[in-house]
Design goal:
By secondary structure, the chain is of the alpha+beta class. Helices cover 38% and strands 23% of the residues. A 5-stranded antiparallel beta sheet has the order 4-3-2-1-5.
């Protein structure tokens, strides 16, 4: 498989750690080989963006989305390009986003919810075993 996700101006990335963990942002400028200037615009539907800041590449996970912006573009133009490319919509439909939402939901379970989940999994496995029949011995 050929590596296709390069660090470039306009590349969308997921923040892996820090106070903005789990939010997406766009690379505005590359400072040096270890850091980039990033910003995530505030979208009208209540999503709080990422303020413009320097961030290490180790703390970013590059996503397969890019937006057409210029070098060190302003927030207003970044927001317009973000909405034109429909990045928020694409992000909500992606598998990575769905996994993050599911893990957050699992973290919010209490003890009884975890017990009910365990029992539901056991019931499902029992049904599968009954449909498949006993496994033949070698």
């Amino acid at each position: 498989m050929v590596f296709e996700l390069y660090v470039e101006i306009g590349r969308v990335a997921l923040i892996k750690c820090g106070p903005n963990k789990g939010k997406i942002c766009a690379i505005i400028d590359v400072i040096d080989q270890n850091r980039a200037l990033v910003e995530g615009p505030s979208i009208k539907d209540g999503v709080i963006g990422v303020p413009r800041q320097s961030m290490r590449f180790k703390h970013l996970q590059l996503l397969p989305y890019t937006i057409k912006i210029c070098h060190t573009t302003r927030t207003k133009k970044l927001t317009a390009a973000w909405e034109k490319s429909e990045i928020s919509k694409k992000w909500m439909e992606s598998a990575i986003s769905k996994k993050l939402i599911a893990s957050e939901r699992r973290k919010g379970l209490n003890d009884f919810d975890r017990f009910k989940l365990m029992k539901a999994k056991q019931k499902r496995q029992r049904m599968i075993r009954m449909c498949m029949g006993p496994m033949p011995k070698k």
